[in-house]
Write a structure and sequence with these properties.
heterodimer; A: alpha+beta; two-stranded antiparallel sheet; 38% helix; B: alpha/beta; 9-stranded mixed beta sheet; 15 helices; 35% helix
């Protein structure tokens, strides 16, 4: 389970880049790709900086000062779970994660 | 990429670059054309670099470097590096024969994002039967080298009557070598595989059992190994969404530079396919009559034209319609609504026979030259 103390980073097979056509971020992995929303792209970029999920939520909360914290938390966890389901995350650190 | 609106112009997301038809293996289900001897004049390095650049300009984000066997090209490292310079996600699809640790390290350094290694069988005799040789130990070495390099590894298995009982062994192998992805794709009965269909098509009971094993493994390994089990369209009763639709997301360039909407398309002899030596890839993609032939829905006959599922399966596989019915516009006979579904039913009934005690001879994919 992904928890507040998990430290997710993108698996080596996943590569984040900008799609020059749409200007949106895409997360590429073997024979697939996900088009990311602006928030999802921010979360993906924050994975791999050694941050815990709580710290990622913190960063987003300061970026989106108007948004409810609970909603941000929910969005972060939902997105990270969807990446984890696809095997696109690895976890570092002992305080949580897989 | 699933969110693209259908109103946008079709955009290729993936370029399948078939670098060479040469291959040390002789798999009896190969997707290369039956007349591959006639296509030995390969594009040179400069031409492939131009193709990669033109593909990226068209919107391609991923390139599958494949063949035949892409390793036979001495310029493979250079082409990988060129693709990465264009920010393409590079899938190297290979038999791993022969691939030493030093060359794999060079390919990884050049920018391979993901290695897809074919495995024919976990049983040596089975490998010899389907591919002409047993090279499992060589593949295990490649897998170990990939793991040492931290290179993401997919094992690609084509499932058929000869190996369908060993899905559990393939899963165990994927776990043992540290693969991140296991693709168990049933044979598509076109080209060489259609020649060998009688020997390759499994019974429904064997398919159901294999699928159950694969699905259980997928649940058990979720988040660790992504396991895909692709059913044969012969079994499903519905056509597969071949290439996500004709000339819609995929672009194939063959070793000699022919641009195709799918690997098999050149088998449709009623269409004329253009070559990147003579015309820019973007123009071929947009304007070539062969690419436009089955785009969208206007070409569809009944029952596809009014079918609820046409937006999901895009009318199925044109190559299969041509191969089985002799008309590329015909409804894919894999569909149980197709007028000629009887062709698939007959093949399937034959597959229900008792297992023979010995492996039947098959037509191995051979090149006379090269």
């Amino acid at each position: 389970m992904i928890g507040a103390g998990s430290r997710p980073r993108l698996a080596s097979k996943a590569r984040l880049r900008v799609d020059p056509r749409s200007g949106k971020h895409v997360l590429l992995y073997p024979e697939r790709g996900l088009e990311l929303t602006e928030t999802a792209a921010r979360i993906a970029a924050l994975c791999g900086q050694g941050l815990t999920v709580a710290a990622i939520v913190e960063k987003l909360a300061s970026a989106y000062a108007d948004a409810e914290r609970a909603r941000i938390e929910d969005e972060v966890l939902t997105f990270l779970r969807s990446l984890d389901e696809r095997g696109l995350l690895v976890f570092a650190g002992e305080d949580g994660g897989a | 990429m699933s969110q693209e609106a259908e109103t946008e112009a079709p955009r290729p997301y993936t370029l399948v670059a078939e670098l060479s038809y040469r291959c040390p293996l002789a798999c009896g289900y190969c997707s290369n054309p039956l007349d591959l001897d006639k296509h030995t004049r390969e594009l040179d390095t400069a031409a492939w670099k131009r193709v990669l650049g033109e593909a990226a300009a068209l919107g391609v984000l991923q390139v599958n470097l494949t063949g035949g066997e892409p390793l036979v090209r001495d310029d493979l490292e250079e082409l990988v590096a060129a693709a990465r310079t264009l920010s393409l996600y590079v899938n190297l699809i290979t038999s791993g024969v022969p691939l030493g640790a030093a060359r794999l390290a060079r390919l990884a350094a050049a920018g391979v994002d993901s290695l897809q290694l074919s495995v024919q069988d976990t049983d040596g005799e089975g490998g010899r039967w389907i591919a002409g040789r047993d090279c499992l130990s060589a593949k295990l070495e490649v897998a170990a080298a990939a793991r040492a390099l931290g290179l993401p590894l997919t094992l690609n298995v084509v499932i058929h009557r000869g190996n369908i009982a060993r899905v559990a062994e393939f899963v165990a192998l994927a776990e043992r070598v540290g693969a991140e992805r296991l693709e168990l794709a049933n044979t598509q009965y076109l080209g060489w595989a259609l020649l060998n269909r009688e020997a390759l098509l499994p019974s429904r009971a064997a398919l159901a059992e294999a699928r159950a094993v694969a699905l259980a493994a997928r649940e058990r390994l979720r988040g660790k190994i992504e396991i895909l089990f692709v059913r044969p369209d012969y079994d499903v009763g519905r056509p597969r969404a071949c290439m996500d639709g004709w000339a819609r997301r995929y672009l194939v360039v063959t070793p000699d530079g022919t641009a195709l909407p799918c690997h098999q398309a050149a088998s449709i002899t009623t269409l004329a396919f253009e070559n990147v030596r003579e015309r820019a890839l973007g123009d071929i993609w947009t304007d070539s009559p062969a690419f436009r032939a089955f785009r969208g829905e206007a070409w569809m006959p009944e029952p596809c034209r009014s079918c609820d599922e046409r937006a999901r399966d895009f009318g199925g596989c044109r190559c299969q319609a041509f191969a089985l019915v002799g008309d590329a516009r015909a409804t894919d006979p894999a569909c149980d609504k197709a007028p000629r579904h009887d062709l698939v039913v007959a093949a399937r009934l034959h597959a229900e026979r008792d297992e023979p005690a010995v492996r039947p001879p098959i037509r191995l994919r051979r090149m006379r030259a090269g």
